[in-house]
Design brief:
140 residues; alpha+beta; five-stranded mixed beta sheet; 3 helices; 41% strand
């Protein structure tokens, strides 16, 4: 049994804060961590996550997938905002203590009509491969 602490929450928080500081924030009415009532389009949601651990004798890596959403009035607006979201979410300047992002890749991207048939809904799924730093790396 391992004593590793998942990078899931620190990655999510670092990504969310990174997006709040990005120029995308000025293009949407808000960036949220879940669906709220009475949101005004366009807006972004940093939503669902899943984690796959990969432990070895020399360390620990995790693939952490984060699904993000854009809701807009038109498909062209949705595509443009989704493009911006992807650009900023794939940047590596955001960091968090004790971990290192070693790889960022797009897993899925799509734009569709939402259930109300008036809203364009963009979905982006990005996978972050995160390496857990070893104790001696954290101390230096």
């Amino acid at each position: 049994m391992s004593n590793w602490v998942s990078a899931h929450e620190p990655l999510y928080n670092a990504l969310f804060n990174h997006l709040l500081q990005s120029p995308l924030k000025a293009k949407v009415t808000g960036i949220y961590d879940g669906m709220k009532m009475d949101l005004i389009k366009p807006y972004a949601i940093v939503g669902e996550t899943d984690v796959i651990e990969s432990e070895s004798s020399t360390g620990m890596h995790e693939d952490i997938a984060v699904q993000m959403h854009i809701y807009a009035d038109s498909k062209p607006e949705c595509r443009e905002l989704l493009r911006m979201l992807k650009y900023y979410a794939k940047q590596k300047p955001f960091s968090f203590d004790g971990y290192e992002i070693t790889k960022v890749r797009l897993s899925n991207e799509q734009v569709m009509n939402d259930i109300d048939n008036k809203t364009s809904h963009g979905v982006l799924r990005i996978v972050y491969t995160v390496r857990h730093k070893l104790l001696f790396e954290r101390m230096s």
